Amino acid sequence: TGLAIHTQGAALEYLHRLGLRTNPHSKVCGDFSEVLDFVRLWQEKDQRKSLPYDIDGVVVKVNELPAQRDLGTTARSPRWAIAYKFPAEQVITKVLKIGVQVGRTGALTPLAELEPTLVAGSTVSRATLHNEDIVSERDIRIGDYVVLQKAGDVIPEIVRSLPERRDGSELPFQMPTDCPACGSQVVRMPGEAVTRCVNGRCPAQRVEKLIHFASKGAMDIEGLGPANVMQLVEAGLVESPVDFYRLAKEDLLSLERFGEKSADNLLAAIAQSKEQPLARLLFG
DNA sequence: GAGGATGGCGTATGCCGAGT
DNA sequence: ACTCGGCATACGCCATCCTC
């Protein structure tokens, strides 16, 4: 505002003239085919090697600022810019086991445990399978070799299995009929994808609920992360959120990795959380 | 007191399913 | 088409605990 700048390109140029660091590889394209040419150029491994950092794609933006304003944004992203992502690096690994996790809401989530493999810069040993339908759609069996990638170069994802590499020892996955944490019968509502444990006293759910209660979005109690909540539950000190507020220093000192300092800090953080507004308490 | 180990937490993402 | 909640991954930094 106040400046005669009407395009993204001019803005970058201006910032550069001011001495701020801008990326020298940006380009204003005249039409869409030029955009595609630019994307294809940077998709080349050799071209990417000329950069001192890794890239996973190219950002395409509408150049005209008034058009950007007209397009606006959704809750998460602008409607005038989008990332063109290069195909993710894919590797082959083996499914050692398919475990089932019980979440805060009782959802049973199948989780693949993999032969640890290096992909896109980090070692992946687990990948969520979301629900039983995905396991059967992608025909993922225990013992299978599978194609693994990191969606967006971050989230591990099993793309497909490699049935041609089976030797007959592979086992199909079956969603348990009983909750792996409490043993009560699980239910899957017709039309829904998720199988749930509906036992209100399920210990796995209880721990997750307590973790949620203390988490950033809810009561935001520093020092009450997953590991410490689990420890408190296992020690029989906490069963429901009110129990947090009844903890004494001696209780904490008996726990692993708790000394004077951390015990005092935690008690202070718990006391502090009483000041949180009602909305946070309700969410917790 | 040094140095290693550990947990918390922020950062950086994405998919799925249900509802609007 | 979009929002939102739920669930998931890894990595790096920092504070603190534990061991020697």
What does the average pLDDT come to?
77
Principal-axes geometry comes out as: extended
Secondary structure tally, helices: 11
What is the count of distinct domains?
Answer: 3
Distance between the termini: 43 Å
Number of strands: 11
Classification by helices and strands: alpha+beta
What fold name goes in the CATH topology slot of the largest domain?
Answer: OB fold (Dihydrolipoamide Acetyltransferase, E2P)
Q: How large is the share of residues in beta strands?
A: 15-25%
The CATH homologous superfamily of the largest domain is named Nucleic acid-binding proteins
Roughly how much helix do the residues carry, as a percent range?
A: 25-40%
Please trace the helix and strand order, writing H or E for each element: HHHEHEEEEHEEEEEEHHHHHH
Per CATH, which architecture of the largest domain?
A: Beta Barrel
Low-confidence stretches: none
The largest pleated sheet is described as: 7 strands, antiparallel
* Quaternary structure annotation: single chain
CATH class of the largest domain: Mainly Beta
